[in-house]
Amino acid sequence: MVCFSENPYRTIGLTSNSGLRQIQKNLSKLKAYSKLGKTLNFDFDLSYLNLTAIDRSMEIVSKVENRILLDENKLKFSLFWFQDISFFFLFPCGFGLSHLLFLLFLILKHQ
Question: How many CB atoms are closer than 10 A to CB 30?
């Protein structure tokens, strides 16, 4: 359960497939808030799961930054965290663009 409750993606409040720009943005926010002694809440705090409390102190944020910016660690920690999956990832690669556009047309037509 430690891989889930102490996951760096949970600490920075992002999904595991977030881009580097978003990771840097949230790390900067966390550093600024911790310098002021304030706490910051994100959607992925998951307080309802009774996980350990999230420590977002300056030293923890520095450790998280070092852990999450390495590609090997990104892969390891992403296995135990949520991803933001869009509609188009659900289709196999063999679908052509015309198939996807047709499906999108059908979806929009029925809304």
Answer: 24
Q: Tell me the one-letter amino acid at 32.
A: A
Domains of the chain plus CATH, in order, are 2-85 (1.10.287)
pLDDT in tens, the chain (111 residues): 677 778 898 899 988 888 899 999 999 999 999 999 898 888 878 776 767 888 899 999 999 999 988 888 888 888 887 787 665 555 555 556 666 667 677 777 765
Distance CA 93, CA 79 (A): 22
Give the burial string for 56-95 (b: 16+ CB within 10 Å, else e).
beeebbeebbeebeeeeebeebbebbbeeeeeeeeeeeee
- The rounded distance, in Å, linking the Cα atoms of 56 and 30 is 7
Q: Which tokens sit at 43?
A: 């959607």
**What are the phi and psi torsion angles at 79 (to 5°)?**
-65, -25
Place of tokens 């852990």: 67
